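$ ./design --mode recover --in tokens.txt
reading tokens...
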């Protein structure tokens, strides 16, 4: 190239530089400047073009793109050289070459071959002999496997996530199996020691009389006639009722279940009259609300006078004489205890002749007034029951009233006791939800580590998932022995301590406490605690997820993800010699 032929050599050199290695489109101007520089160099000497661009091969084995000159170039060439090196450092992915040096210096140049596929060649400018051919030239020993390092990390984290999800599914199923396999037997045990659900009905009032009738029967082939007496009865409707029940909830725990047990103080005053003009014997029958129950202070009185009671299998009866057309006031009182619900059934057919079976048919009530007093909130009115006509808040409880002048209804008055959070089912639901919490936590930790320039290995994520799992495992077995709220607090502290103490060794205290610790508090502790508020869990988690998305979007809005997922940075360019 430097044979001294002047213009012809100049044009050849310019064409060679125009065929120089492909740069991005915005470096076209730089390409042209380099070509001009070569022409200028040729005018100063035939050997300048050969020494303008080259790679200095060191004995250490790393070859860089360098510009060598045996003579000092003018100011324009020096400026172009500096510009080329700066651009090469910033935009070329790989600028190092593997070479074997010799005792002398050898100069190399990069050329581009045009054709169907562009390829980069490293050539000796003296002999134009290709020495290295590649689509991209990498530093000596730089492993190509780093190109997909980010994707391998993500795949590893994903595998850990699905493994932890499977573990939580097994734990949740185990908790539910432990809970409900013994639910029926536990309910029976509570009923045997405390009481069953109670359903009270109004007393039956009827007067009785004896009738004699002649009965003919055949004995030993002979007809025998005798008198038989039979007791007849006639039901009497209640003229008015004043009923009151004071209910206090007293929970009992068996196994992994809480039972809504309660005590009730019941009293009722029922007015009636003798519909006949003659003195009649009245029979009063009070149905007991449950056979499996304890009754204290049970009494039945007429006009303030206690009556002797006869106890049957599921009721008590008493008798009294009432003059013809007289009014009577029947009062019943007792204290008892039950579970789950308390119900009052009107229990009389419209004709008032007999008592209808409990919870069946249409019932009638005249001038009916009922008050239920509670010292708790959170109760419910079951299906097919009458809502109160008036409610009044009183301290910790409520006064509920039902007032009817003439009621005909197939519905009852009922109150379902509030339920405490069930330790077993609640722990199972939290375990089933755990993968959602872990997903949010992994996502936040991954984003924050990228922002901080911290590379966490998938094994680090494995130990973080194990710390999450420790929370649910500890909670599942602590609730057998202590309050679920205390068990939740202890499990949360243990899990957070595991995460923070581990990440302070892996990264530092700030990342462990502020970044990971706060994320775990939100996505593990608060998300799980949302299950204590029935009906609001989904809303709480949704709001938390939206707020998290907003925060992450603001933090990562300026990140160029193409750079984050790009190939590793190129090796540095050696200094010019």
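writing sequence...
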């Amino acid at each position: 190239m430097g044979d001294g032929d002047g213009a012809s050599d100049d044009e050849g050199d310019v064409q060679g530089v125009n065929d120089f290695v492909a740069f991005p489109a915005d470096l076209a101007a730089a390409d042209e400047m380099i070509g001009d520089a070569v022409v200028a160099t040729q005018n100063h000497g035939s050997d300048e073009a050969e020494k303008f661009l080259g790679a200095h091969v060191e004995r250490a084995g790393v070859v860089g793109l360098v510009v060598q000159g045996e003579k000092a170039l003018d100011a324009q060439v020096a400026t172009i050289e500096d510009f080329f090196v700066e651009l090469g450092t910033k935009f070329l992915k790989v600028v190092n070459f593997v070479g074997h040096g010799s005792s002398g210096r050898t100069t190399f140049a990069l050329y581009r071959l045009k054709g169907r596929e562009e390829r980069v060649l490293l050539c000796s400018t003296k002999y134009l002999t290709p020495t290295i051919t590649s689509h991209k030239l990498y530093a000596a020993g730089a492993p190509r496997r780093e190109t997909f390092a980010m994707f391998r990390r993500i795949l590893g984290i994903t595998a850990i996530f699905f493994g932890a999800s499977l573990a939580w599914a097994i734990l949740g199923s185990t908790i539910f199996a432990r809970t409900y396999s013994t639910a029926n037997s536990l309910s029976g045990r509570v009923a045997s020691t405390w009481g069953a659900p109670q359903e009270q009905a109004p007393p039956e009032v009827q007067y009785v009389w004896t009738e004699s009738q002649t009965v003919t029967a055949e004995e030993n082939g002979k007809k025998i006639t005798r008198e038989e007496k039979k007791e007849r009865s006639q039901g009497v409707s209640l003229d008015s009722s004043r009923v009151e029940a004071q209910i206090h909830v007293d929970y009992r725990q068996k196994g992994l279940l809480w039972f809504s047990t309660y005590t009730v103080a019941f009293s009722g005053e029922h007015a009636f009259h003798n519909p006949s003009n003659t003195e009649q014997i009245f029979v009063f029958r009070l149905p007991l609300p449950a056979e499996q129950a304890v009754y204290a202070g049970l009494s039945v009185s007429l006009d303030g006078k206690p009556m002797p009671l006869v106890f049957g299998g599921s009721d008590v009866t008493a008798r009294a004489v009432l003059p013809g057309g007289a009014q009577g006031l029947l009062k019943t009182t007792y204290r008892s205890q039950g579970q789950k619900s308390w119900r009052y059934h009107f229990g009389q057919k419209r004709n008032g002749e007999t008592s209808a079976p409990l919870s069946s048919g249409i019932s009638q009530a005249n001038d009916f007034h009922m008050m239920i007093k509670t010292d708790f909130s959170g109760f419910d009115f079951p299906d097919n029951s009458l809502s109160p006509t008036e409610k009044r808040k009183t301290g910790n409880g409520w006064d509920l009233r039902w007032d009817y002048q003439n009621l005909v209804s197939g519905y009852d008055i009922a109150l379902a006791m509030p339920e405490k959070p069930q330790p077993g089912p609640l722990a199972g639901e939290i375990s089933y939800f755990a993968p959602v919490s872990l997903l949010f936590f992994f996502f936040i930790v991954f984003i924050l580590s990228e922002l901080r320039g911290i590379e966490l290995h998938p094994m680090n994520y494995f130990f973080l998932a194990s710390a999450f799992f420790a929370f649910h495992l500890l909670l599942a077995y602590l609730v057998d022995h202590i309050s679920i709220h205390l068990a939740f607090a202890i499990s949360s502290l243990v899990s957070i301590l595991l995460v923070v103490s581990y990440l302070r060794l892996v990264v530092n205290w700030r990342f462990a406490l502020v970044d990971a610790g706060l994320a775990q508090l939100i996505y593990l502790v608060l998300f799980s605690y949302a299950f204590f508020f029935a009906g609001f869990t989904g809303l709480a988690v949704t709001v938390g997820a939206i707020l998290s998305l907003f925060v992450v979007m603001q933090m990562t809005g300026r990140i160029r993800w193409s750079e984050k997922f790009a190939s590793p940075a190129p090796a540095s360019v050696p200094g010019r010699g």
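exit 0
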